[in-house]
Structures are given as structure tokens and as C-alpha cells.
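Protocol step 4 of 6: structure prediction from sequence.
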Amino acid sequence: MRVQSYLYLGGMIALLLGERVLGTGQMHLVLSGGGVLLVLAALGMSFRDMAAAPPDQKGAHQLQLIFGAVGVVSLLLYLCSTDLIIDKMTLSEDGEHRLVVALSALWPIVWLAGSMPFVAIDRALAESPVAVVSSRVRELSLGWLSAAFALALLFPLNFIASDTNERWELGYFKTAEPGTATLGVIGSLEVPVTAYLFFPAASDVTEEVQVYFDQVEGGNLTVEYVDHALDPELAKELKVRNNGYVVFVRGEGDEQQIERIKVGETFDTAKRTLKKLDGEVYEALLKVARGPRVAYLTVGHGEMYWSSDLSPDRKINDLKKVLRQLNFTVRELGLTNGLAAEVPEDATVVIVLSPESALLDEEITALNAYRERGGAMLIALDPGGPALTELLTPVGVGYDPAATLAIDANFIPLYNGPLDRVNIATNKFSSHGSVTTLSRNSKAAFVITPAASVIEKLEPATGKNNTTMRTLAATWADYNSNLKFDATLPAPAEGETTPGAEERKEWPLAIATSGPSTGEQEFRVVVTADATWVSDFLLLQNKGNAQLLIDTLSWLIDDESAAGTVNNEKDVKIQHTKEGQGWIFYSTTFLLPLLLLVGGLARVRTRQKRN
């Protein structure tokens, strides 16, 4: 190609970058203005060549100049579609919209009709600068004009496809398979439970549900397939209005317990539930397999709560939701609820979440009495909290609220600064029952504990204790809050117990204690060095944190059959970054079309050489 083609194409690319990529700013003006000058320079050179050409060759040069002018007209049409011109027109809002749409569809077509023949003619003139056959040039230009119009057909086709809005579901789909937690609950059923599946015989949904229940049927779980239209009496008894339901039934008469799962009758309505069917079945089976449970959460001392006024790292709406899914009734336990006297007899577990002020002596006494008669407690601590010595020492746990655990490697980057060093992630789990599932999956599962305090294992008053979760070996206890590892520390002030140096080691993050009681079962207590792991900030955001809660509660209430994993086949969201989206834009805008152009030119050149 000759110089004018390079000027023409360079000017058009500069205009594209200035108008469609930058849009505003000084660089936008430089690129757009420079692009216009390059295009005009290319046309000027073409006009000069036409004036200097012999009479029998002027036709070819005139044709190139005409197509170059058509390309300039496309730029004028684009200019008319911008706010610079539209705002000066006295048109209605609907009229402006129609004009902008028409011009936006027209100027790319005109640009193709002018630019493609212009470059093709210039290439022909470059190959035969002396003997130019005007008829051959006209034929060549018409061929490239036809190609331009064919390419322009993509614009109406794209509009038609967008207008009809047809959608094909090509996403991932798979019905969830039974998890170990669900199989554990089914294996521990002490009384018969019947699962009635209300689905028609011939249905895609029936096939998916049948595949799942064929794997769980057995023992005390019986599965029966029912069509709502063929057995209306049973449907009325179980309060099922139509097909598309799974109903679990335990017992008869007044003692009958029923749990329903709405799946959906058609595949489009059912596929969302099918992906999480195992979780739905697990939750329903827990309700019919066990009696009601009550989880008491202490209040009145600045504990974490489900109030909307709290920040996500102190809010526990998700914890409340998970407890209800595990068949717990959630209740408050504070001074006004009788904590100073005793823990209610119906308490299945008592949860103490990061109190900010000390508990009364009477409240400590009531909690210790509850533990001594075989109670279960989960105590989550944070740096800077009250000592709780009378509550922790009997279960063999020491607590230092003056330090925060930190690590300068393998932390979770949330703030992109030194503060991230307290975001500890760990996969160091023992084989204890309170972390049994995490221990089996330690290569893939991890728990996040932001701002963990320092706890240590002591000799319990009765029973035995185990460190069930530890930090990584590079962790240290930060006593001066500078988030840096200090080999030496200043001498502590009078009354303080700060050590002389900070130490890197595996620090305990959770300690579980069990021992004899005055009741029918042993007491069980789990103490964690952090409380934020059960907050809305993390509990359902990291599978490891949710699994730790399930395993811990299952061990505390001595129901380890409910521990394990619940399968979920939800799609994994593709995370788009600004950098990644930039690559997608530029590769589809420039790289792919350029590759197609180069491949086509190489193919044409190879064919010409062969001919």
C-alpha cells in the first residue's frame, strides 16, 4: 500500500481511540483532531496523484478519491449523532432518540462502503503504478464494496437478535448429590420416616429427583412416588396443592410431623432448587429426625447481636439463620431473662460471643452450674475483652486480651495494608470431633479468624481438653499494636505482664474441653480465640467457617451424625477484574479482527502466487 492508505487507516484508528475509548479530556482532543488531519492529508495526496496522472489513468484515481470522500461523509454522520449536534436541534425526546439510533446504525455502514474500496484501490495502484487498467480497478472496487455491504449485514442481524431476545441455557447444571451430613442424619433415624415425592411419572424433574433419592433410600427412610392427580386424598392430608413437592412425614395422628420442600413441577422452575436439593433435604430431615432444640445467646454485655445498627463484623444474622436451619430455636439469655439465677432447663447449647463488658458473678455462677450438670457451651473471644477467668479456668483455658495474633505471610488481603496481617487463615486442624470434617478436607478447606486473641491450654478442673485448631507457624502475638514482629519489647509498666519479646509459633485458635458432670451426659465446651468468624462478615462467605460452626455444634450437642458436608451445585461466579475486562475489550475490538484480516490477506496472497 502507498503512504495515503497508512495515513487514512492511522487517522481512522486515532479517531476510534479518541471518540470511543477516551471520549473526554485533552488526549481525546489530540487523538480526534490528529485523526481528522491524517484522513484529510490522505485525501490530499490522492487528489495530488489524480492531478498528476495521465488522462487514461485519471479514472482510477478519481474512483479512489470518491470512496475516500464517502469515508469522510461517515465521519460527518457520526458527528451528527453526538451530543454536540443533537443538543442544538429542536427535536422532541422521541425524535432525538430515533435520529441517534438511525445515525448510529448508518455511519458504520457508510464507513465500510468508503474505506474498504479506498484501501483496495490504493493497493492496486501501488502494485501497478505505471500501467493502471481502469476497468480492473472499477471491478475491484465493486467487489470490495459488495464485501463491505455484506459485512454491514451484521448490524441489522445483531438488532434482530437483540429484539427477539431469544435465550439458550448453556450454563452448568447438575442436581446435588447426597452429602455426608445428609447420609449421617438418615443413618441415625430412630423412627421410620416416609418421603412422599409428588411428581408425574413422565417428567424431567422426576428423573432428577429419583436419581437423588435412589442414593438415600434405606434404613428408616422410605421413598414413595405419588402423582397429585391420582391420589388427591393423600395430597389433601399432607396439604399439597399440586405436583412438584417432596414431603417428609414422621409419626401418625396428632404426633405426626410434616416437612415440605417445594421443588417445582417444570424443569425451568425446579432447576434452582435441584442444585441445592441436598441442603434442603438435610434441613428438613433434621427437623423430623430430632426434637426441638434451643440455642441461648447471652446478651446485655455488648455481645455480638443481630441488630441492624451493628457493623457486619459484629452482626450475627447469618448465625441465627444457620441455627434455625439446624433445627434450633434461638433465644436471648441475659439478666432480664434469668441468667443471674440459672440457665433454663430447655437449653441445648449456650453461646457467648465476644462480650465487651464483664459478666456479673451471679451470671458466671449460673453458667458454671449449667456446665457442671452436663451443659454445652460455645465461647468466642476477641482481643480487649473481659478476662472471664472464673468461666474459662475451670475448663482449662487461659486468655490474654492484651495481644492480637498477626502474621506477615499467608494472610487474607482485605484492606491492602498492614491491617491485613490480623486476617489469619489456617488449615491446621486436629482429629477432634469438633473439627472432624475440616480435618478430613484440610488440603482444600480453611478457616478465617480476623483479630484473634491469645488463648492457651491449661489443666482443666475436671475432664480433658484438646487444641483443635492452630495458626500457621509464622504467627506472632502482637502486644504493642504496631503489626510488626518485634524480637524485643520494652520493659512492661508496673502491673502489666507483657513478655520481653514476641514469638513466632503455632498459636491455639480453638480449644475443646469435655468431662464428667452431675447429669446424664458429660459437659462439653469449645473456646475460640476469635469471634468474628461467626459474624455476617465471614460465616457464609467462607465455606470453612460455616463448616466449623456445623462441626462444633454437632460435637457440643453430641450429635456427630449431623456433622459432615452438604453438597451444593450452584454455579461458581466468574470474577471480572478491571484489567481482565480491558483485555476482553481490546482483544475483541482489535486483536481478533486483525487476526482475521491478516489470515485473509495471507490466504489471498497464497492463492495469487499459486495461480
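Step 5 (inspection) to follow. Residues 122 and 128 are 10 Å apart (CA to CA).
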